[in-house]
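Summary for the lay section of the report: proteins are chains of building blocks that fold into shapes. Here we show the chain for Phosphatase PAP2 family protein and then a coded description of the shape we predicted for it.
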Amino acid sequence: MLNLAENRTPQQTNIMLFLSRSYKYGDIGVPAALLAGGIIRNDAQMRENALYVASSTAVSYGVMLLLKHIVKRPRPFVQNVRIIPVYRAGSTSFPSGHASTTFATATALSKAYPKWYVIAPSMLWAGSVAYSRMYLGVHYPSDVTAGTALGVGSAFLLDPLIRR
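The coded shape description reads as follows.
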């Protein structure tokens, strides 16, 4: 974490801020696009996949909020004054909500459409968002790891419950 904070560049920081902010668009946009496509094409499977992706992300988000409330881990920059964040994130640190929801979205999408051209970009996006949270100084690696596990786990848990 100290190494990341000490070796930031303005160009990398801009990219990481963009990635970190992209989570809302992917988490909401992917299921919304699937739903719209399913309605337009009258495709029941696509509508079901939209529900699956949205549900995985929502469950991951809810459990993440509960864990944040229970654990109440301070952000890295609060614990260690040598870690200078790019911005001061609110709330608590454990687990990473960005990692949780992006990995839930990416995993559910990858399970719904198991093609390399879906899996590779979705996992690259989720991994990049998760990494950006450490780069920006607002999460520990363990926060991101736990968020990733939570997101992947929610997608695997809901797959047999929602998809036929």
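Put simply, here is one thing we learned. Helices lie at 2-6, 10-21, 23-40, 44-71, 76-79, 97-112, 116-135, 141-162.
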